[in-house]
Amino acid sequence: MEKPFNIYCTKSQGIELKDLDEGSRKVALYLSRFDVMDSDNDIIRRGAFTKSIQERGPMAASNRKIAFLRYHNWEMPIGKFTELSEDNNGLFAVAQLGNSTLGNDALADYKDSIINEHSIGFKYVKDKIKFIEDATLEMGGFYEINEVNLFEGSAVTFGANEFTPVVEVAKSEGRIETLDKLGLEINTVLKALRNGQGSDDRLYNLEMKLKYLNGQLLTLAKAEPFQKHSAQSEPKNESLPFNWVDVAKGVTGQ
User: Which of 97, 137, 143, 212 is closest to 2 using CA atoms?
Assistant: First the structure.
């Protein structure tokens, strides 16, 4: 499958916050990981961001710096990167959150663990991609990415692929693990809503996330649980330990 070389792409690898200093409003995080195959069958190698950092990083002369955004939205800058560098793990970043409403909301979301993922906005560089054949993989191999044109790094509330497709998970052995994860996510959002900090937009976004999580939880709860059949035992139905939907409805008045 040909890569979309002239198209703006985003890529999320489920990377969480590394550190937060509330006093200085600085966050330390990884935007990308090296040597790990992602859902696009890409493996990004160390050095893939070197040219972009040199040309548009915090120390570059260019006035078109690599941006720090929310949701990959260029109308939602939340601060600026003060450090971008590659280490053995991936693309490391230190960012200064701005004093705008967007920056304040992002700080509150970091404090409440609402922001739990970061991703990049980029373009592939055609001559810097190599397909490596591997018969053990479903696609017959993977793409080795040795350079990308990096435009921005974004803080996202939750990744586009998180809990999706939840029905498939419901029919797998990962059902209980997914229920636990959804429960933790709902608790985090409920706590943030109770705190009531931030702008109306932030609280609205939290309510929308809660609705999303409720929907995923309801879908998972209604799905047939995974069954292991054997001659010695009868299948057992699994049940939810807590009714998170009722809890969430009580807070949001739904």
Answer: 143
CB 30 within 8 A of CB 120: no
Angstrom distance (rounded) from CA 102 to CA 201: 9
Report the SS3 class of residue 10.
strand
Predicted structure pTM score:
0.70
**Alpha-carbon span 191 to 248, nearest angstrom:** 11
User: 32-58, pLDDT tens digit by residue?
Assistant: 999 998 888 899 999 999 999 999 999
Contact 122, 148 (CB under 8 A): yes
Quote the CA–CA distance of 72 and 39 in Å, as a whole number.
Answer: 19
Buried b (16+ CB within 10 A) or exposed e, 1-18: eebeeeeebebbbebebe
Q: Torsions phi, psi of 80, nearest 5?
A: -145, 150
